[in-house]
Amino acid sequence: MLIDWFTVLAQVINFLVLIALLKHFLYRPVLKAIAAREQRIAHELSAAKNAATAAQAELAQLTQERQTLQQQREAVLAATQETALAEQSRVLAQAHVAAQRIQEDGRLGAQAEFQQLSSLIVQRTCGEVLDLTRRVVSDLAQDDLQAHMMTVFLGRLRQLDASQRAPFDLLEVSTPWHVRSALPLSTAQQQELMAGVTAVFPHATTLVFEVAPSLVCGIALLAGGYKLTWNTEDYLTQIRQNLLALPQWPEPAVATAGEGS
Amino acid sequence: MHLSPDQVIFWQWGWVKLNLTIVTTWILMVLITSLAWLATRDLERAVSADAPVSHWRSVVEWVVSLVLQQIVEVGLPRSEKYLAFIGTLFLFVASASLCTVLPVYEPPTGSLSTTTALALSVFFAVPYFGIREQGMWRYLQHYLQPVPIMLPFNIVSELSRTLALAVRLFGNMMSGGMILGILLMITPLFFPVALKLLGLLTGMVQAYIFGILATVYIAAAVGSHETRKVFVTKG
Q1: Is the pLDDT of residue A261 over 50?
Q2: Angle at CA B101, nearest 5°, toward B95 and B106?
Q3: Which residues of B touch A33 (CB under 8 A)?
Q4: pLDDT at B128 exceeding the cut of 70
Q5: Window 31-90 of A, Cβ < 8 Å to B
Q6: pLDDT digits (tens, 9 = 90+) for B96-116
Q7: For residue B113, which residues of chain A lie inside 8 Å, CB to CB?
Q8: How far apart, in Å, are the Cα atoms of B29 and each of A1, B21, B36, B92?
Q9: Per-residue model confidence (pLDDT) at position A115
Q10: Alpha helix locations (H) across B41-111?
Q11: d(Cα B89, Cα B83) in Å, to the nearest integer?
Q12: C-alpha B175: how far from chain center
């Protein structure tokens, strides 16, 4: 017979013993290891998930911070731009004011220069005219212009009305009287002039004769802060007015703010 | 030439005897247990230290995981409960077949006594697991399904499949050794090698079939109840 029942029984027992042995030496350790590994993997997965969550949170925070920084940057840029525009406007206004001032200074300077030049021209012209007149009168008419002007001065002095004479009448005797002429007076002319002044103002005992080229022509009497004069001022004024009435007088060039230095 | 290693008796005292089947089985048991011990002796330390996995340990874990997966796929979700029985069945039959590459080796599964012992183990394991999962009354009730008149047919079915298990494995393993012996006498060069390889393949397939059929029988005994429990647990 192919089946030996003792062997069957022994093999069943052997099989059960083998189950027990493998359960102890194989299945239990392997299952334990697999469980531990799965637990570790689950733990690592959980840790990775937590790390991913933390990373997401950090990413969100960084994104928020970046947006905040972007907004702050834009705000700072806008403020800076606004400040720059205000500064630009201020600097432009200052430059405009400075340019206007420079232009005004230039205009005033040119005007003053023009006034000075016109005065010089008038004075020179009058001087030349009078000198010419003097020489013409002296050479052609054998006469002295200075003497004529002194005669006219003394005539007008005698014709002074009371109101014109009043300030001089109140002067003290010790007050010096200054006689200014464009040209030096001769001794005879000085004595004639002293006699004429004393005749009108008896208390004018001290006369001091001075030469004043600025008068150009004519004679001036000064005493106690008052002045009596006859000269060519009226003519000079007329000439100056004629010069100023010239239609085209060149304006001085004024540098604008936009031009280079 | 002998048909079964049972016939090679080393020692006998009355009806107690020590034959080649038992001795070979002991050698296989020592071999399997030693390899298992070698593979798992420092497993716990290696896992706790997160040491690199050795190749041998990987193979052992792969085999155990494969058995677990097959048990689950057949219909037993809580496979760890059945791993010891089904895994030992598979490993014993598979290692008995693998060792046929060794000269003068006769597999214990080439003995009808061994295959009968394994089939009887399955025969008793099925009601053991069924009663443990469902209880005595519910388990016995399935012999009356779908109608009570099916009771004798169900009992015959239980007996016949046990017989089929034993004879199938014995026939395959015995025939392999028998054909190899005959061919060695006729054509000693090429054909024995090819047939040896074919026998190796057949032995592995038989180990797989034996394990799968045992799993199917156990799953049929506990299947619906086991599945419902898992659903309840998951739900």
Answers
A1: no
A2: 70
A3: 40, 43-44, 46-47, 61
A4: yes
A5: 31-34, 36-37, 40
A6: 999 988 888 888 988 889 999
A7: 2-5, 7-8, 11
A8: 26, 12, 10, 8
A9: 79
A10: 43-49, 55-74, 80-98
A11: 10
A12: 18
Tens of pLDDT, residues B11-64: 988 889 999 999 999 999 999 999 999 888 877 777 777 777 778 888 888 999
Q: Which long-range contacts (CB under 8 A, 24 or more apart) does B150-155 make?
A: none
- The rounded distance, in Å, linking the Cα atoms of A139 and A145 is 11
B64/A30 Cβ within 8 A: yes
Bridge partners, A177 (sequence order): A207, A223
Question: Per-domain residue ranges for chain B?
Answer: 5-234
Residue B109 contacts A, CB cutoff 8 Å: no
pLDDT of A251 strictly over 60: no
Where b means 16+ CB within 10 Å and e means fewer, A144-177 reads bbbeebbeebbeebeeeeeeeeeebeebeeeeeb
Q: What angle do CA B104, B110, B115 make, to 5 degrees?
A: 150
Residues of chain A in contact with residue B170, where contact means CB-CB under 8 angstroms, are: 2
Q: Do B33 and A8 touch (CB under 8 A)?
A: no
For chain A, which domains are there? 144-244 (3.30.360)
- Indicate the helix (H) or strand (E) that contains A222: strand A218-223
Has this prediction a pTM greater than 0.95? Answer: no
Report the complex ipTM.
0.89
Q: With contacts defined as CB-CB under 8 Å, which chain B residues touch A44?
A: none
User: Which tens digits make up the pLDDT trace of B85-97?
Assistant: 999 999 999 999 9
